[in-house]
Design goal:
Helices cover 39% and strands 18% of the residues. It has 221 residues and is an alpha+beta fold.
Length: 221
C-alpha cells in the first residue's frame, strides 16, 4: 500500500510538471500584449512660465541624429490657413489647431487633421467650422459664441494658433527661425502619431500659461 501511495504522488508530480511546462511553452508562443502607455506631449503645461517653455522647446530641437520627428509650431499671432501654408512651406503638416480669437471670451481649441496637401491645409478653417457647434457647452452664451465662431471660420479668419508637423531636426530648427513662428518643439524620434497630446502656446500667453478671461461681451458679427 505504501509503495502504491508513493508512486501515486510521484505520478502526480510528473503530471503537474508536464502541465506547467506546456503552459510555459504556450505563454512563450502567445505573449500577453502590453498596453501602450505614452506620456509624450507637445506644448506648454498649465502654470508654466512662458520663458521656460520657450527654452524647453528650443532645447528639444538639439539632436545628434537626422531622424524625422513630430513637432508643434506655435505662432506669435493668429494666422490664416493661407499664411500657415506659406510659413510652413516645405514641411509636412498633419494637424491644424484653430481657435477663434474673441476679446475676453473663451473659445475652444479645434483640431483638424490634414494629410499635408496644400488644399487640405487651406480648407482647415472651413472644416473647423463644422466642429464648432459640437465643441461648445449648453446655454445662450455658448450658442452665441458658437454662431460667431462658425461665421468667422467660414470667412477664413486668422484663427490658426498651432500646427503639428513632421520633419528632421534641421528642418524644424530652420522653421523656428521663420517669420511669425514663436516656438517649435520636437518630440523624440520614437514618438508615435496619435499617441501624444498637443497643447498650443496661445499668443495671449505672455508670462504664465493659464486660463484666459471670459467676462467679455460676445460680438454679434
Amino acid at each position: 500500500m505504501r509503495s502504491r501511495g508513493v508512486s501515486g504522488v510521484l505520478g502526480g508530480v510528473v503530471v503537474a510538471a508536464l502541465v506547467i511546462g506546456a503552459l510555459a511553452v504556450i505563454g512563450h508562443l502567445n505573449p500577453v500584449r502590453q498596453s501602450i502607455v505614452s506620456t509624450d506631449r507637445l506644448g506648454p503645461d498649465t502654470g508654466e512660465q512662458v520663458a521656460e517653455y520657450l527654452a524647453r522647446a528650443e532645447e528639444s530641437l538639439r539632436s545628434d541624429t537626422t531622424e524625422p520627428r513630430w513637432g508643434s509650431v506655435s505662432f506669435d499671432r493668429e494666422l490664416t490657413a493661407e499664411q500657415v501654408r506659406t510659413v510652413a512651406d516645405g514641411v509636412r503638416i498633419s494637424q491644424v489647431l484653430v481657435r477663434v480669437p474673441l476679446d475676453r471670451v473663451q473659445t475652444p481649441i479645434l483640431t483638424v487633421g490634414v494629410p499635408g496637401s496644400e488644399r487640405s491645409v487651406l480648407n482647415s478653417t472651413a472644416r473647423a467650422a463644422s466642429l464648432a457647434a459640437a465643441s461648445f457647452g449648453v446655454g445662450d452664451r455658448q450658442a452665441q459664441i458658437a454662431a460667431v465662431s462658425q461665421r468667422r471660420l467660414l470667412d477664413g479668419c486668422a484663427c490658426v494658433v498651432t500646427v503639428v508637423v513632421r520633419g528632421t531636426p534641421a528642418e524644424l530648427t530652420e522653421l523656428a527661425g521663420r517669420p511669425d513662428v514663436r516656438a517649435v518643439q520636437a518630440l523624440p524620434p520614437d514618438a508615435v502619431s496619435g499617441k501624444f497630446a498637443v497643447e498650443p502656446l496661445l499668443p495671449e500667453y505672455v508670462d504664465v500659461v493659464g486660463p484666459l478671461p471670459d467676462d467679455g461681451l460676445v460680438p454679434t458679427e
